[in-house]
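Input record, target 12 of the design panel.
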């Protein structure tokens, strides 16, 4: 082969090699692009076809990790002194949101000078009750100690702080004594005197009763001038519902005597779910019974209220749920409370009817109420012992 043919052959081989290399590069680019495209398409299809159940399970798993705490209510048979709170919850405070919380915890119960018998154990939560508008577990701190083995007065400083840093401070002087002196007694009020003072064309006078009044002669009660009776139907205590042991007898005999009828429900719910369930139970107990007065919601376990681990918004939601459920079932409802708690705890934003408890000759409570529990030391024929006396205002 001469030099010219050899040169031509070398050029041809070079061109062939270059073309082959270029083809390989193009093919590689095509294959890589196809791979990337297919992978992206696969991921897009996976996202488009994802089951909603996957999301729900994730949320459910997250919800189940939330900590729940069970608390045991401390029972006490000792009488505690309720200090009335002079500062009323303002509309602005009631509307405060959690992030802008500037309201300190509220003292619901405070016995500033409790007396403890020597050698008995001292539990400060029997003599105090507090709550915050948002914080369910505000910090509770006590400076000072009580030695019940030695007689004397032991000063304590109490500081309650919510998670926003708002503080309430109070003093308590615990008196350790050898014997507990008898408490003060209230004067009794006969029903005929009650009639003279409070009966007029716009009022009806009545009583409220429970098993504590024992067997009642409602015919004598009616003859004494009583016009209505509010009876305890039962309630919720230590996590279970109960029917007052005298309820059915009281209901039958009071109606037979021609008295107007209402009921009150003793409450200790910690959540709206408990209320909804208990109202269903309550409707089963009533079984369509006709009532002349609203069903009263009576929540008053305020000493050691902190053990419930609920805030002021919670308890107001609890009552409102009770009211909504009862009215939805076809009955009227109302809130029972003392003046103190109507001012410092219950907001009653929807202006539901109120049964006011204030043991005084002339109440100075300025809020709305349809019934006034004037006294807890009433006396009337047909009942042995004390009974609560009530004024219903029929024009409100």
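The sequence produced for target 12 reads:
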């Amino acid at each position: 082969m001469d030099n010219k043919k050899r040169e031509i052959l070398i050029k041809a081989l070079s061109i062939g090699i270059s073309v082959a290399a270029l083809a390989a590069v193009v093919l590689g680019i095509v294959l890589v692009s196809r791979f990337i495209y297919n992978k992206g398409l696969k991921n897009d299809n996976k996202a488009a076809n994802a089951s909603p159940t996957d999301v729900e399970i994730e949320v459910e798993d997250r919800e189940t990790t939330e900590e729940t705490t069970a608390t045991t209510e401390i029972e006490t048979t000792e009488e505690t002194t309720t200090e009335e709170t002079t500062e009323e919850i303002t509309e602005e405070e009631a509307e405060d949101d959690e992030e802008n919380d500037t309201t300190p915890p509220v003292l619901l119960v405070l016995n500033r000078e409790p007396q403890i018998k020597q050698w008995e154990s001292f539990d400060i939560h029997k003599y105090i009750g507090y709550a915050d508008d948002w914080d369910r577990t505000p910090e509770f701190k006590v400076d000072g100690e009580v030695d019940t083995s030695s007689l004397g007065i032991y000063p304590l400083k109490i500081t309650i702080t919510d998670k926003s840093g708002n503080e309430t401070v109070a003093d308590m002087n615990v008196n350790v004594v050898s014997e507990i002196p008898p408490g003060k007694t209230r004067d009794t009020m006969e029903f005929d005197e009650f009639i003279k003072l409070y009966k007029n064309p716009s009022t009806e006078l009545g009583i409220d009763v429970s098993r504590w009044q024992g067997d009642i002669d409602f015919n004598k009660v009616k003859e004494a001038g009583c016009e209505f009776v509010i009876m305890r139907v039962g309630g919720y205590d230590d996590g279970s519902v109960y029917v007052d042991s005298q309820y059915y007898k009281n209901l039958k005999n009071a109606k037979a005597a021609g008295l107007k009828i209402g009921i009150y429900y003793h409450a200790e719910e910690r959540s709206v779910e408990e209320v909804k369930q208990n109202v269903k139970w309550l409707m089963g107990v009533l079984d369509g019974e006709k009532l002349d007065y609203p069903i009263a919601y009576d929540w008053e376990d305020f000493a050691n209220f902190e053990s419930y681990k609920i805030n002021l918004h919670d308890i107001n939601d609890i009552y409102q749920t009770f009211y909504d459920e009862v009215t939805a079932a076809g009955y009227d409802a109302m809130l029972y409370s003392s003046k103190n708690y109507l001012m410092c705890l219950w907001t009653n934003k929807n202006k539901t009817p109120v049964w006011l408890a204030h043991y005084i000759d002339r109440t100075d409570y300025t809020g709305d109420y349809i019934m006034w529990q004037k006294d807890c030391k009433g006396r009337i024929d047909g009942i042995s012992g004390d009974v609560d006396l009530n004024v219903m205002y029929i024009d409100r």
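The chain has three domains: 3-64, 91-177, 189-393.
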